[in-house]
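Issue 218. Parser rejects a valid record. Input:
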Amino acid sequence: MSASSVQHQSLWLDPGECARTPPTGAIDLVAYDSRFTWSRVLVAVSPFGGTGRCYSFAKSGNASPEVPPDSLLFTFSGPGTDGAQLGFLAGDLTGGGPPPVAGTPTPGPLTGPITALVGVSVDGVYRSSATCRLTVTAMSSPLAAGHFTCPEATVLTANPFSPNDEGPFEDSSAPAMPSDSDTATLSGWFELTP
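Output the parser choked on:
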């Protein structure tokens, strides 16, 4: 059996771990120039009509979450092609306005959840939602943390944790409507430190 055909299975945790409260700290409305080398995300994947499981993934990718021109993306990986990602617009930390600069008023504090994209790959199946609700509990150089809920994440063919460059980039056929077995609720929390 070749190394590429070996199946890796994610380890799962007690569901209560995914429901824990993330740490709290200062929220920097700019959130740029931060570098995180240690982190984890815990994600509960609950397929519709099925039993949910809690998974933990460690920090992967670039230490800086900045994706120019205006996004933050945090990536995490597990065994094989398993992993998770969480991203949002940096401007959402300021209520959609520009970050404070010399001579402009400082935006008020972040008072509610923002919209985020969350994706998780478990055992080769990638589920994602761009309409997750993210409550940021810390966002500064020493700590970034928060918790999220995605009421409906769907299975996508393209898996960023298992790219397939052999097939066509775009499928010309009309996408099928997702079935209940293709959709799941995602929820959990993350923390990152330098």
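Fixed in the parser; the record now loads. The longest helix spans residues 15-18.
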